Amino acid sequence: MTEALPPLRAAIVPVTPLQQNCTLIWCTATMRGAFIDAGGDLPRLQAAAEKAGVTIEKLLVTHGHIDHCGGTGILAEQLGVPIEGPHEADRFWIARLDEDGRNYGIEGRVFEPNRWLGDGDTVTVGNLVLDVIHCPGHTPGHVVFHHAPSQLAIVGDVLFQGSIGRTDFPMGNHADLIDAITRKLWPLGGETAFVCGHGPMSTFAHERRSNPFVADSVLARG
Ligand SMILES: [Zn+2]
Ligand SMILES: [Zn+2]
User: What PANTHER family does the annotation carry (predicted)?
Assistant: First the structure.
């Protein structure tokens, strides 16, 4: 008897000088996959896909910051695959990728996604279906990808282990961010593990206990 493979597998590749967690996810039934937030270091990303034996079929983007999507337009052209995400409210961030790239020392290229995403949309990767959750605050067009059967979320810069996303950028909004975390992420369940944009993984339950910004005890104090 053989054990059933989990339907989704993932590998995290930190990229760019900002050590942004690019996530390679793939469908084990079809060995087709996607990069979420291909910010840069494209040869390393290609090597990770080759090592896993995965054929990349699309690029997904959580939000328009240079470390998350500076390399996305370039990689999409190299691989001949479409780009899905983020929400169109991040169009102004994507429009400045060239300029931000020069400032951060990351190769950045402006792109037009093949599909902008909205709250309640789904995206497919092989046979996998991921839910799209619009979580504004860090940027107005930030989206989170959630694979319910795996209890896994890729949250970009919305939430970190022990912290939350910055909201001091143009169109950032602290109240929106707290709302998105507590009203849209917590209901996904405490057992849900999440990959954040920078640093180690965590679970929603762990953050609800201990995160100094959004723990239940902290928010109850108002
Ligand atoms: Zn960001
Ligand atoms: Zn980031």
Answer: HYDROXYACYLGLUTATHIONE HYDROLASE GLOC (PTHR46233)
